[in-house]
Write the structure tokens for this entry.
Amino acid sequence: MSDKPTLVKCLVWDLDNTLWQGTLLEDGEVHLPDEIRSVIVELDQRGILQSVASRNDHDLAWKQLQALGVDEYFLHPQINWGNKSTSVQKIADKLQFALKTIAFVDDRPNERAEVEFHHPEVRTYTEADVLALLDRPEFSPEVVTVDARRRREMYRANALRDEEKDSFDGPDEAFLRSLDLVMAIKRADGEDISRVEELTLRTSQMNATGVHYSDETLRGLLKDPDHEVLTITLSDRFGTHGAVGVLLLERHAAVWHLKLLATSCRVVTFGAGTVLLNWLVDQAAQAGVHLAADFKPTDRNRMMEIAYRFAGFTSDACDCLATVTSTGAGIQSLHLVTERRPDPTTMRLISPDLTVANAFSR
Ligand SMILES: [Zn+2]
């Protein structure tokens, strides 16, 4: 892992003589070569987001992107007369991406230098590099999932949601209800597993143990009647957030052992973790068992610990824990004596009945 470069999550394009040939305000007419159009489309297919940082007349440049039929590929475009380093920072802030995951391509050495000076973590490229970007490892994710291909749409929907939230005066709970959120919890099948693996790799902040379960391990567990592998997707009236969580559970007679819980930080603001844990507590209560959850504090998953504590998990001892084997060094077992929990008030839940063992082989 350590010798692979950090994947680029967003490429920021200069326009004049980088994305298109010509200088819009001087030449009046510019040309987008087919090879560059192909790069834009392929990056999008790989789930790499794209934006624009251009010193240009905003309306004129945006109209030109529309005329070329590529405007839809660019999120949070910064077309203004300000510094490009400021534009790059704004794009990273809007997307909530670390600067080390941002790349910037510009034909002008002074613009690249200005960005490099303020943001040494941002990788910069010249116009001559563009056609070879697709061959570079930092632009080549190993797994391209359905969600990766739809990532741009999801981020676009996020931008619309944020705008709506900014203009909304009511309390958060009312805002959440206005989104018509639907959480679907599903017993995973083989097709879900690649989505899940990508999620567990990307969600270190919200992974309860920091333990990475490989595709192969999870696939193996699909057939094990003592294990449940569940995937969680979230959608609302703006569209889907895709796969946002994975949960791995082992059943014992007196206790259900939660071995893995990872959720995307994209959906923390929707209270998705709390809704999920409450549902699980309620299911375990109906089955008459306690819950034990593996937890290992890391410097990034404090929010997950808060979610567990908030749901009622404690560090108390219980006889049931004798049957639970934790999966790695430094992992604690959090414990909960279950009781029925009410349905969520902020979203609709579609879920399997875990009290009926999943007898059908998948
Ligand atoms: Zn117990």
In short: The pocket of zinc ion is lined by residues 255, 290, 318, 320, 335 (CB under 6 Å). DSSP finds twelve helices and twelve strands in the chain.
